[in-house]
Amino acid sequence: MAQEDRAQGDVLIRVEHLVKQFDGHIVLNDISTEIDRGDVVCVIGPSGSGKSTFLRCLNRLETPDGGHIYVYDDVDGDIRHGIDICDKTTDIDTHRQRMGMVFQQFNLFPHMTIMKNLTIAPMKLQKKTQEEAESYASELLSRVGLSDRASSYPGELSGGQQQRIAIVRALCMRPQIMLFDEPTSALDPEMVGEVLSVMKDLAEEKMTMVVVTHEMGFAREVANRVMFLDGGDFVEEGEPETFFSHPKSDRLKNFLGKVL
Amino acid sequence: MFSAFYDALYLNFVKDDRWHYLTNGLKVTLIVTLFSALMGVVLGFVVAIIRSTYENTGRMKIANKLCGLYLTVIRGTPVVVQLMIIYFVIFASVRIDKTLTAIIAFGINSGAYQAEIFRSGINSVPKGQFEAGRSLGFNYGQTMVHIIMPQAFRVVVPTLCNEYITLLKETSVAGYIALEDLTKGGDIIRSRTYSAFLPLIAVALIYLIMVLALTKLVSVLERRLSRGTRR
Ligand SMILES: Nc1ncnc2c1ncn2[C@@H]1O[C@H](COP(=O)(O)OP(=O)(O)OP(=O)(O)O)[C@@H](O)[C@H]1O
Ligand SMILES: [Mg+2]
Protein backbone atom coordinates (compact mmCIF):
# COMPACT_ATOMS: atom_id res chain seq x y z
CA MET A 1 0.00 0.00 0.00
CA ALA A 2 1.33 3.38 -0.97
CA GLN A 3 1.86 5.90 1.77
CA GLU A 4 -0.99 8.27 2.27
CA ASP A 5 -1.30 11.78 3.43
CA ARG A 6 -4.25 14.10 3.72
CA ALA A 7 -4.68 17.67 2.72
CA GLN A 8 -7.32 20.28 2.54
CA GLY A 9 -7.67 23.09 0.10
CA ASP A 10 -6.35 23.23 -3.43
CA VAL A 11 -3.03 21.50 -3.12
CA LEU A 12 -2.37 19.13 -6.02
CA ILE A 13 1.21 18.14 -5.40
CA ARG A 14 3.17 18.41 -2.20
CA VAL A 15 6.91 17.87 -2.34
CA GLU A 16 8.55 17.04 0.99
CA HIS A 17 12.28 16.84 1.61
CA LEU A 18 13.04 15.75 -1.93
CA VAL A 19 16.64 14.63 -2.43
CA LYS A 20 18.22 13.55 -5.68
CA GLN A 21 21.84 12.78 -6.39
CA PHE A 22 23.80 11.49 -9.33
CA ASP A 23 26.84 9.40 -8.36
CA GLY A 24 27.27 11.19 -5.04
CA HIS A 25 26.74 14.62 -6.58
CA ILE A 26 23.71 16.09 -4.80
CA VAL A 27 21.50 17.94 -7.27
CA LEU A 28 18.34 18.43 -5.23
CA ASN A 29 19.01 18.93 -1.56
CA ASP A 30 15.97 18.59 0.68
CA ILE A 31 13.39 20.45 -1.39
CA SER A 32 9.90 21.09 -0.09
CA THR A 33 7.15 22.95 -1.92
CA GLU A 34 3.51 22.77 -2.91
CA ILE A 35 1.71 23.15 -6.18
CA ASP A 36 -1.94 24.07 -6.08
CA ARG A 37 -4.65 23.33 -8.60
CA GLY A 38 -4.62 26.02 -11.28
CA ASP A 39 -1.12 27.16 -10.41
CA VAL A 40 1.19 28.21 -13.18
CA VAL A 41 4.60 27.81 -11.64
CA CYS A 42 7.70 28.85 -13.54
CA VAL A 43 11.01 27.39 -12.42
CA ILE A 44 14.09 29.36 -13.33
CA GLY A 45 17.73 29.00 -12.43
CA PRO A 46 21.23 28.66 -13.83
CA SER A 47 22.17 25.82 -16.16
CA GLY A 48 22.88 22.62 -14.24
CA SER A 49 21.03 23.78 -11.14
CA GLY A 50 18.66 20.80 -11.33
CA LYS A 51 15.54 22.32 -12.90
CA SER A 52 15.00 19.38 -15.24
CA THR A 53 15.83 16.94 -12.48
CA PHE A 54 13.19 18.52 -10.23
CA LEU A 55 10.56 18.39 -12.98
CA ARG A 56 11.42 14.81 -13.91
CA CYS A 57 11.14 13.72 -10.28
CA LEU A 58 7.53 14.90 -10.30
CA ASN A 59 6.56 12.07 -12.66
CA ARG A 60 9.40 9.81 -11.57
CA LEU A 61 11.30 9.89 -14.83
CA GLU A 62 14.10 10.33 -12.31
CA THR A 63 13.88 8.23 -9.18
CA PRO A 64 14.31 10.42 -6.09
CA ASP A 65 16.79 9.27 -3.47
CA GLY A 66 14.78 10.65 -0.57
CA GLY A 67 11.65 12.51 0.40
CA HIS A 68 8.06 12.29 -0.68
CA ILE A 69 5.98 13.63 -3.53
CA TYR A 70 2.30 13.45 -2.70
CA VAL A 71 -0.20 13.75 -5.50
CA TYR A 72 -3.69 14.65 -4.31
CA ASP A 73 -5.87 13.00 -6.82
CA ASP A 74 -9.18 11.66 -5.64
CA VAL A 75 -11.61 14.18 -4.34
CA ASP A 76 -13.42 12.90 -1.26
CA GLY A 77 -15.40 15.73 0.23
CA ASP A 78 -13.00 18.42 1.31
CA ILE A 79 -10.30 15.99 2.24
CA ARG A 80 -8.18 14.51 -0.48
CA HIS A 81 -5.92 11.54 -0.22
CA GLY A 82 -2.38 12.04 -1.34
CA ILE A 83 -0.47 9.21 -2.86
CA ASP A 84 3.29 9.23 -2.55
CA ILE A 85 4.72 8.63 -5.99
CA CYS A 86 8.18 8.16 -4.49
CA ASP A 87 6.84 4.99 -2.90
CA LYS A 88 8.06 2.03 -4.94
CA THR A 89 4.69 0.32 -4.62
CA THR A 90 2.80 3.19 -6.23
CA ASP A 91 1.63 2.39 -9.75
CA ILE A 92 3.49 5.20 -11.46
CA ASP A 93 2.07 4.45 -14.92
CA THR A 94 -1.46 5.31 -13.80
CA HIS A 95 -0.21 8.58 -12.35
CA ARG A 96 1.73 9.50 -15.43
CA GLN A 97 -1.45 9.19 -17.49
CA ARG A 98 -2.70 12.24 -15.63
CA MET A 99 0.56 14.19 -15.78
CA GLY A 100 1.37 15.52 -19.22
CA MET A 101 4.99 16.20 -20.06
CA VAL A 102 6.46 18.34 -22.82
CA PHE A 103 10.14 17.98 -23.65
CA GLN A 104 12.69 20.37 -25.05
CA GLN A 105 13.23 18.02 -28.03
CA PHE A 106 9.48 17.45 -28.70
CA ASN A 107 9.98 13.66 -28.84
CA LEU A 108 7.08 13.02 -31.18
CA PHE A 109 6.92 9.47 -32.52
CA PRO A 110 8.46 9.77 -36.00
CA HIS A 111 6.96 6.54 -37.35
CA MET A 112 3.38 7.62 -36.71
CA THR A 113 1.18 10.24 -38.30
CA ILE A 114 0.25 13.22 -36.16
CA MET A 115 -3.20 11.75 -35.56
CA LYS A 116 -1.67 8.45 -34.45
CA ASN A 117 0.72 10.32 -32.17
CA LEU A 118 -2.27 11.95 -30.53
CA THR A 119 -4.56 8.94 -30.25
CA ILE A 120 -2.29 6.02 -29.41
CA ALA A 121 -2.09 6.70 -25.68
CA PRO A 122 -5.80 7.44 -25.10
CA MET A 123 -6.73 4.36 -27.13
CA LYS A 124 -4.26 1.94 -25.55
CA LEU A 125 -4.30 3.29 -22.01
CA GLN A 126 -7.73 4.78 -21.49
CA LYS A 127 -9.54 2.35 -23.76
CA LYS A 128 -11.03 5.14 -25.83
CA THR A 129 -12.52 4.13 -29.14
CA GLN A 130 -10.80 5.43 -32.23
CA GLU A 131 -13.71 7.80 -32.87
CA GLU A 132 -13.64 9.24 -29.37
CA ALA A 133 -9.87 9.65 -29.42
CA GLU A 134 -9.83 11.18 -32.89
CA SER A 135 -12.65 13.58 -32.28
CA TYR A 136 -11.01 14.95 -29.14
CA ALA A 137 -7.63 15.10 -30.88
CA SER A 138 -9.16 16.98 -33.82
CA GLU A 139 -10.77 19.46 -31.48
CA LEU A 140 -7.44 20.17 -29.78
CA LEU A 141 -5.63 20.24 -33.13
CA SER A 142 -7.90 22.95 -34.42
CA ARG A 143 -7.36 24.93 -31.24
CA VAL A 144 -3.63 25.05 -31.92
CA GLY A 145 -4.29 25.76 -35.59
CA LEU A 146 -2.91 22.51 -36.99
CA SER A 147 -6.03 20.70 -38.19
CA ASP A 148 -4.60 20.34 -41.66
CA ARG A 149 -1.57 18.37 -40.43
CA ALA A 150 -3.40 15.37 -38.96
CA SER A 151 -2.10 12.98 -41.59
CA SER A 152 1.43 14.38 -41.79
CA TYR A 153 4.45 12.79 -40.17
CA PRO A 154 6.35 14.71 -37.48
CA GLY A 155 9.39 15.02 -39.74
CA GLU A 156 7.34 17.11 -42.16
CA LEU A 157 6.58 19.77 -39.54
CA SER A 158 8.56 22.74 -38.32
CA GLY A 159 9.92 22.77 -34.78
CA GLY A 160 7.22 25.11 -33.57
CA GLN A 161 4.51 22.95 -35.09
CA GLN A 162 6.03 19.81 -33.60
CA GLN A 163 6.11 21.33 -30.15
CA ARG A 164 2.49 22.42 -30.42
CA ILE A 165 1.63 18.83 -31.40
CA ALA A 166 3.63 17.56 -28.44
CA ILE A 167 1.54 19.73 -26.14
CA VAL A 168 -1.65 18.44 -27.74
CA ARG A 169 -0.40 14.85 -27.42
CA ALA A 170 -0.09 15.32 -23.68
CA LEU A 171 -3.47 17.08 -23.47
CA CYS A 172 -5.22 14.21 -25.24
CA MET A 173 -4.81 12.20 -22.04
CA ARG A 174 -6.80 14.91 -20.20
CA PRO A 175 -4.07 15.44 -17.60
CA GLN A 176 -4.62 17.32 -14.38
CA ILE A 177 -1.17 18.85 -14.56
CA MET A 178 1.27 19.69 -17.36
CA LEU A 179 5.04 19.65 -16.93
CA PHE A 180 7.14 21.63 -19.41
CA ASP A 181 10.92 21.30 -19.62
CA GLU A 182 12.25 24.27 -21.56
CA PRO A 183 9.66 23.82 -24.31
CA THR A 184 10.99 26.65 -26.45
CA SER A 185 14.75 26.22 -26.02
CA ALA A 186 15.23 24.05 -29.10
CA LEU A 187 13.20 26.35 -31.35
CA ASP A 188 14.26 28.97 -33.85
CA PRO A 189 13.45 32.39 -32.40
CA GLU A 190 10.59 33.05 -34.82
CA MET A 191 8.76 29.94 -33.58
CA VAL A 192 8.97 30.61 -29.86
CA GLY A 193 5.92 32.85 -29.88
CA GLU A 194 3.48 30.33 -31.33
CA VAL A 195 4.37 27.76 -28.64
CA LEU A 196 4.23 30.25 -25.78
CA SER A 197 0.85 31.44 -26.96
CA VAL A 198 -0.55 27.90 -26.80
CA MET A 199 0.83 27.61 -23.27
CA LYS A 200 -0.70 30.94 -22.35
CA ASP A 201 -4.11 29.78 -23.58
CA LEU A 202 -3.69 26.69 -21.47
CA ALA A 203 -2.92 28.78 -18.40
CA GLU A 204 -6.02 30.86 -19.03
CA GLU A 205 -8.08 27.69 -19.05
CA LYS A 206 -6.77 27.09 -15.52
CA MET A 207 -4.57 24.14 -16.37
CA THR A 208 -2.09 23.45 -13.59
CA MET A 209 1.38 23.91 -15.07
CA VAL A 210 4.97 23.63 -13.96
CA VAL A 211 7.21 25.28 -16.52
CA VAL A 212 10.99 25.19 -16.55
CA THR A 213 11.92 28.07 -18.78
CA HIS A 214 14.43 30.71 -19.75
CA GLU A 215 11.63 32.92 -21.09
CA MET A 216 11.47 35.58 -18.38
CA GLY A 217 8.79 37.49 -20.25
CA PHE A 218 6.52 34.47 -20.19
CA ALA A 219 7.20 33.85 -16.50
CA ARG A 220 6.43 37.44 -15.70
CA GLU A 221 3.24 37.56 -17.71
CA VAL A 222 1.70 34.12 -17.26
CA ALA A 223 2.99 32.60 -14.03
CA ASN A 224 1.29 33.20 -10.71
CA ARG A 225 4.43 31.97 -8.98
CA VAL A 226 8.09 31.98 -9.97
CA MET A 227 10.66 29.84 -8.22
CA PHE A 228 14.42 30.26 -8.40
CA LEU A 229 16.41 27.05 -8.10
CA ASP A 230 20.09 27.28 -7.25
CA GLY A 231 22.54 25.26 -5.20
CA GLY A 232 20.14 22.34 -4.78
CA ASP A 233 17.16 24.22 -3.34
CA PHE A 234 14.62 26.91 -4.11
CA VAL A 235 16.41 30.03 -2.99
CA GLU A 236 13.53 32.37 -3.50
CA GLU A 237 9.98 32.31 -4.78
CA GLY A 238 7.11 34.68 -5.13
CA GLU A 239 4.53 36.15 -7.41
CA PRO A 240 6.18 37.48 -10.57
CA GLU A 241 5.91 41.21 -9.96
CA THR A 242 7.84 41.27 -6.68
CA PHE A 243 10.03 38.36 -7.73
CA PHE A 244 11.41 40.20 -10.74
CA SER A 245 11.19 43.79 -9.50
CA HIS A 246 12.33 43.34 -5.93
CA PRO A 247 14.46 40.22 -5.64
CA LYS A 248 15.66 39.72 -2.08
CA SER A 249 18.58 37.30 -2.25
CA ASP A 250 21.89 38.24 -3.80
CA ARG A 251 21.98 35.04 -5.82
CA LEU A 252 18.68 35.86 -7.53
CA LYS A 253 19.73 39.48 -8.07
CA ASN A 254 22.93 38.23 -9.61
CA PHE A 255 21.08 35.72 -11.82
CA LEU A 256 18.46 38.22 -13.00
CA GLY A 257 21.22 40.71 -13.70
CA LYS A 258 22.69 38.23 -16.17
CA VAL A 259 19.53 37.07 -17.97
CA LEU A 260 17.36 40.18 -18.11
CA MET B 1 37.18 -27.61 -78.54
CA PHE B 2 33.43 -27.16 -78.08
CA SER B 3 32.83 -30.81 -78.10
CA ALA B 4 35.39 -31.20 -75.28
CA PHE B 5 33.41 -28.69 -73.26
CA TYR B 6 30.15 -30.51 -73.98
CA ASP B 7 31.78 -33.75 -72.96
CA ALA B 8 32.83 -32.20 -69.69
CA LEU B 9 29.33 -30.82 -69.10
CA TYR B 10 27.85 -34.21 -69.87
CA LEU B 11 30.28 -35.99 -67.59
CA ASN B 12 29.81 -33.67 -64.64
CA PHE B 13 26.11 -32.95 -64.72
CA VAL B 14 24.16 -35.24 -67.04
CA LYS B 15 25.79 -38.64 -66.71
CA ASP B 16 24.22 -40.69 -63.89
CA ASP B 17 21.94 -37.72 -63.24
CA ARG B 18 24.75 -36.02 -61.37
CA TRP B 19 22.92 -32.68 -61.46
CA HIS B 20 20.77 -34.12 -58.73
CA TYR B 21 23.69 -33.60 -56.35
CA LEU B 22 23.39 -29.88 -57.01
CA THR B 23 19.61 -29.59 -56.86
CA ASN B 24 19.27 -31.79 -53.78
CA GLY B 25 22.19 -29.96 -52.21
CA LEU B 26 20.59 -26.63 -53.01
CA LYS B 27 17.39 -27.77 -51.36
CA VAL B 28 19.30 -28.72 -48.20
CA THR B 29 21.19 -25.42 -48.21
CA LEU B 30 17.96 -23.44 -48.50
CA ILE B 31 16.20 -25.46 -45.80
CA VAL B 32 19.12 -25.10 -43.39
CA THR B 33 19.44 -21.37 -44.10
CA LEU B 34 15.74 -20.65 -43.79
CA PHE B 35 15.11 -22.55 -40.58
CA SER B 36 18.31 -21.53 -38.85
CA ALA B 37 17.53 -17.91 -39.75
CA LEU B 38 14.09 -18.35 -38.18
CA MET B 39 15.51 -20.01 -35.10
CA GLY B 40 18.12 -17.26 -34.89
CA VAL B 41 15.49 -14.55 -35.18
CA VAL B 42 13.56 -15.90 -32.22
CA LEU B 43 16.69 -16.52 -30.18
CA GLY B 44 18.24 -13.19 -31.08
CA PHE B 45 15.06 -11.30 -30.35
CA VAL B 46 14.67 -12.83 -26.91
CA VAL B 47 18.33 -12.26 -26.06
CA ALA B 48 18.16 -8.65 -27.23
CA ILE B 49 15.05 -7.99 -25.14
CA ILE B 50 16.68 -9.48 -22.05
CA ARG B 51 19.87 -7.51 -22.60
CA SER B 52 18.19 -4.15 -23.15
CA THR B 53 15.68 -4.71 -20.35
CA TYR B 54 18.62 -5.26 -18.05
CA GLU B 55 20.37 -2.17 -19.38
CA ASN B 56 17.28 0.00 -18.99
CA THR B 57 15.76 -1.28 -15.79
CA GLY B 58 18.30 -3.49 -14.00
CA ARG B 59 15.83 -6.37 -14.07
CA MET B 60 16.68 -9.92 -15.31
CA LYS B 61 20.22 -9.85 -14.01
CA ILE B 62 20.88 -13.58 -14.15
CA ALA B 63 19.26 -14.04 -17.56
CA ASN B 64 21.40 -11.17 -18.80
CA LYS B 65 24.56 -12.86 -17.51
CA LEU B 66 23.63 -16.06 -19.34
CA CYS B 67 22.97 -14.14 -22.53
CA GLY B 68 26.32 -12.42 -22.22
CA LEU B 69 28.04 -15.79 -21.87
CA TYR B 70 26.16 -17.14 -24.89
CA LEU B 71 27.20 -14.17 -27.04
CA THR B 72 30.84 -14.37 -25.95
CA VAL B 73 31.18 -18.08 -26.61
CA ILE B 74 29.31 -18.15 -29.91
CA ARG B 75 30.91 -15.05 -31.38
CA GLY B 76 34.33 -16.02 -30.09
CA THR B 77 34.53 -19.41 -31.80
CA PRO B 78 34.28 -20.50 -35.45
CA VAL B 79 30.92 -21.76 -36.62
CA VAL B 80 32.48 -24.97 -38.04
CA VAL B 81 33.78 -25.87 -34.61
CA GLN B 82 30.36 -25.19 -33.09
CA LEU B 83 28.75 -27.35 -35.74
CA MET B 84 31.13 -30.24 -35.10
CA ILE B 85 30.79 -29.99 -31.33
CA ILE B 86 27.01 -30.13 -31.62
CA TYR B 87 27.13 -33.10 -33.99
CA PHE B 88 30.03 -35.15 -32.63
CA VAL B 89 29.86 -34.24 -28.93
CA ILE B 90 26.42 -33.11 -27.86
CA PHE B 91 24.43 -35.38 -30.14
CA ALA B 92 27.12 -38.09 -30.21
CA SER B 93 24.99 -40.81 -28.66
CA VAL B 94 21.63 -39.80 -30.15
CA ARG B 95 22.12 -39.81 -33.89
CA ILE B 96 19.60 -37.20 -34.95
CA ASP B 97 19.04 -36.03 -38.48
CA LYS B 98 22.00 -34.12 -39.92
CA THR B 99 19.85 -31.42 -41.43
CA LEU B 100 18.26 -30.81 -38.06
CA THR B 101 21.67 -30.74 -36.42
CA ALA B 102 22.85 -28.14 -38.92
CA ILE B 103 19.71 -26.05 -38.38
CA ILE B 104 20.28 -26.09 -34.62
CA ALA B 105 23.97 -25.26 -34.93
CA PHE B 106 23.54 -22.44 -37.43
CA GLY B 107 20.43 -21.22 -35.61
CA ILE B 108 22.30 -20.91 -32.33
CA ASN B 109 25.18 -19.24 -34.13
CA SER B 110 23.03 -16.79 -36.08
CA GLY B 111 20.99 -16.01 -32.96
CA ALA B 112 24.05 -14.49 -31.35
CA TYR B 113 24.67 -12.18 -34.29
CA GLN B 114 21.01 -11.30 -34.70
CA ALA B 115 20.79 -10.51 -30.98
CA GLU B 116 23.45 -7.87 -31.37
CA ILE B 117 21.73 -6.47 -34.45
CA PHE B 118 18.40 -6.19 -32.61
CA ARG B 119 20.07 -4.64 -29.62
CA SER B 120 21.87 -2.03 -31.67
CA GLY B 121 18.54 -1.26 -33.34
CA ILE B 122 16.86 -0.75 -29.98
CA ASN B 123 19.75 1.40 -28.80
CA SER B 124 19.60 3.50 -31.96
CA VAL B 125 16.19 4.86 -30.96
CA PRO B 126 16.76 8.14 -29.08
CA LYS B 127 16.23 8.02 -25.33
CA GLY B 128 13.63 10.77 -25.58
CA GLN B 129 11.30 8.38 -27.43
CA PHE B 130 11.37 6.04 -24.48
CA GLU B 131 10.75 8.88 -22.04
CA ALA B 132 7.93 10.28 -24.13
CA GLY B 133 6.24 6.88 -24.06
CA ARG B 134 6.70 6.45 -20.34
CA SER B 135 5.54 10.00 -19.62
CA LEU B 136 2.22 9.27 -21.35
CA GLY B 137 1.69 6.36 -18.99
CA PHE B 138 2.84 3.42 -21.10
CA ASN B 139 4.65 0.82 -19.01
CA TYR B 140 8.02 -0.56 -20.02
CA GLY B 141 6.64 -3.35 -22.19
CA GLN B 142 4.04 -1.18 -23.93
CA THR B 143 6.66 1.46 -24.66
CA MET B 144 8.90 -1.17 -26.20
CA VAL B 145 6.13 -2.69 -28.30
CA HIS B 146 4.37 0.46 -29.53
CA ILE B 147 7.17 2.98 -29.71
CA ILE B 148 10.67 1.53 -29.62
CA MET B 149 10.37 -1.72 -31.60
CA PRO B 150 8.66 -0.29 -34.68
CA GLN B 151 11.44 2.27 -34.99
CA ALA B 152 14.19 -0.22 -34.19
CA PHE B 153 12.76 -2.60 -36.78
CA ARG B 154 13.17 -0.10 -39.61
CA VAL B 155 16.77 0.49 -38.68
CA VAL B 156 17.52 -3.19 -38.37
CA VAL B 157 16.00 -4.71 -41.50
CA PRO B 158 18.90 -4.05 -43.90
CA THR B 159 21.52 -5.29 -41.44
CA LEU B 160 19.39 -8.28 -40.61
CA CYS B 161 19.09 -9.20 -44.28
CA ASN B 162 22.84 -8.97 -44.67
CA GLU B 163 23.14 -11.40 -41.78
CA TYR B 164 20.91 -13.84 -43.70
CA ILE B 165 23.11 -13.49 -46.76
CA THR B 166 26.16 -14.24 -44.64
CA LEU B 167 24.34 -17.18 -43.10
CA LEU B 168 23.49 -18.61 -46.51
CA LYS B 169 27.18 -18.65 -47.39
CA GLU B 170 28.27 -19.92 -43.99
CA THR B 171 26.10 -23.02 -44.22
CA SER B 172 28.55 -24.21 -46.87
CA VAL B 173 30.66 -25.73 -44.09
CA ALA B 174 27.86 -28.20 -43.34
CA GLY B 175 29.90 -30.79 -45.25
CA TYR B 176 32.03 -31.16 -42.13
CA ILE B 177 29.29 -33.31 -40.64
CA ALA B 178 28.77 -34.98 -44.03
CA LEU B 179 25.52 -33.14 -44.67
CA GLU B 180 24.99 -33.06 -48.43
CA ASP B 181 24.32 -29.40 -48.98
CA LEU B 182 25.05 -27.48 -52.16
CA THR B 183 28.79 -27.26 -51.57
CA LYS B 184 29.06 -30.89 -50.59
CA GLY B 185 27.02 -31.79 -53.68
CA GLY B 186 29.55 -30.09 -55.94
CA ASP B 187 32.34 -31.76 -54.05
CA ILE B 188 30.80 -35.20 -54.51
CA ILE B 189 30.62 -34.64 -58.27
CA ARG B 190 34.26 -33.58 -58.22
CA SER B 191 35.26 -36.76 -56.42
CA ARG B 192 33.33 -38.88 -58.93
CA THR B 193 34.52 -37.20 -62.12
CA TYR B 194 37.98 -36.10 -61.01
CA SER B 195 37.34 -32.71 -62.58
CA ALA B 196 37.15 -29.84 -60.15
CA PHE B 197 36.51 -26.88 -62.41
CA LEU B 198 32.93 -27.28 -63.61
CA PRO B 199 31.24 -28.58 -60.48
CA LEU B 200 32.85 -26.01 -58.21
CA ILE B 201 32.21 -23.14 -60.62
CA ALA B 202 28.62 -24.26 -60.89
CA VAL B 203 28.32 -24.24 -57.10
CA ALA B 204 29.88 -20.80 -56.90
CA LEU B 205 27.51 -19.48 -59.56
CA ILE B 206 24.44 -20.76 -57.73
CA TYR B 207 25.55 -19.07 -54.49
CA LEU B 208 26.31 -15.87 -56.38
CA ILE B 209 22.91 -15.76 -58.05
CA MET B 210 21.14 -16.29 -54.73
CA VAL B 211 23.20 -13.63 -53.00
CA LEU B 212 22.59 -11.12 -55.79
CA ALA B 213 18.86 -11.80 -55.72
CA LEU B 214 18.73 -11.36 -51.96
CA THR B 215 20.78 -8.17 -52.14
CA LYS B 216 18.35 -6.78 -54.67
CA LEU B 217 15.47 -7.70 -52.40
CA VAL B 218 17.11 -5.91 -49.49
CA SER B 219 17.50 -2.67 -51.40
CA VAL B 220 13.85 -2.76 -52.50
CA LEU B 221 12.81 -3.39 -48.90
CA GLU B 222 15.04 -0.63 -47.65
CA ARG B 223 13.44 1.88 -49.99
CA ARG B 224 9.97 0.74 -48.93
CA LEU B 225 10.79 1.22 -45.27
CA SER B 226 12.36 4.61 -45.61
CA ARG B 227 9.23 5.85 -47.31
CA GLY B 228 6.52 7.25 -45.03
CA THR B 229 8.52 8.32 -42.06
CA ARG B 230 10.97 11.12 -42.51
CA ARG B 231 12.91 12.58 -39.66
N1 LIG C 1 21.37 11.15 -15.81
C1 LIG C 1 22.31 11.90 -15.18
N2 LIG C 1 23.47 11.33 -14.76
C2 LIG C 1 24.41 12.06 -14.13
N3 LIG C 1 24.30 13.37 -13.88
C3 LIG C 1 23.17 13.99 -14.27
C4 LIG C 1 22.12 13.29 -14.95
N4 LIG C 1 21.14 14.17 -15.22
C5 LIG C 1 21.55 15.36 -14.74
N5 LIG C 1 22.76 15.27 -14.17
C6 LIG C 1 23.49 16.36 -13.52
O1 LIG C 1 22.64 16.95 -12.58
C7 LIG C 1 22.80 18.37 -12.58
C8 LIG C 1 21.46 19.02 -12.84
O2 LIG C 1 21.02 18.71 -14.14
P1 LIG C 1 19.69 19.26 -14.77
O3 LIG C 1 19.58 18.75 -16.15
O4 LIG C 1 18.56 18.99 -13.85
O5 LIG C 1 19.97 20.83 -14.78
P2 LIG C 1 19.10 21.99 -15.44
O6 LIG C 1 18.89 23.00 -14.39
O7 LIG C 1 17.91 21.41 -16.10
O8 LIG C 1 20.10 22.57 -16.51
P3 LIG C 1 19.81 23.18 -17.97
O9 LIG C 1 19.34 24.56 -17.78
O10 LIG C 1 21.13 23.12 -18.63
O11 LIG C 1 18.80 22.30 -18.61
C9 LIG C 1 23.83 18.68 -13.64
O12 LIG C 1 25.07 18.87 -12.98
C10 LIG C 1 23.87 17.45 -14.50
O13 LIG C 1 25.17 17.24 -15.01
MG1 LIG D 1 17.26 21.16 -18.11
Can you tell me about this structure?
With 260 residues, chain A is α/β, with parallel strands linked by helices. Chain A has nine helices and eleven strands. In chain A, a hairpin with a 2-residue loop joins strand 5 (66-76) and strand 6 (79-84). In chain A, helix 3 (114-125) packs across helix 4, helix 3 (114-125) packs parallel to helix 5 and helix 5 runs parallel beside helix 6. Chain A is globular and about 50 Å long. The model of chain A has no long low-confidence stretch (mean pLDDT 93). By secondary structure, chain B is mostly helical. Chain B has one domain: MetI-like (MetI-like fold, Orthogonal Bundle), CATH 1.10.3720.10. In chain B, helix 2 (19-57) packs antiparallel against helix 8 (182-193) and helix 3 (61-76) crosses helix 5. The radius of gyration of chain B is 22 Å and the shape is elongated. Chain B starts with a helix and ends in a 5-residue tail after the last helix. In chain B, 34% of the residues are buried. The chains are: A alpha/beta (260), B mainly alpha (231). Chains A and B meet through helix 2, strand 7 and helix 3 of A and helix 6 and helix 7 of B. Residues 51-52, 181-182 of chain A line the site of magnesium ion.
